Amino acid sequence: MASNLVGFVGLGNMGAHMARNLIKNGVKLMVFDLDAKRVAELKSDGAEVAQHPADVAVASKTIVTMLPSSPHVRSVYGTTSETVDNGLVAHMQPGTLCMDSSTIDRSASIEVAGAVALKKSAYVDAPVSGGVVGAENATLTFMVGGDKASFDRATQYLSMMGKNTVHCGNVGCGQAAKIVNNMMLGIQMIGTAEGMNLGIKMGLDPKLLASIINTSSGRCWSSDTYNPVPGVIEDIPPSKGYTGGFGSALMCKDLGLAQNASTEVQAPILLGSLAHQVYRILANDPKYANLDFGIIYQFLKNQAEKKQ
Ligand code: NAD
Question: What are the protein's UniProt keywords (predicted)?
Answer without folding.
Answer: Branched-chain amino acid catabolism, NAD, Oxidoreductase
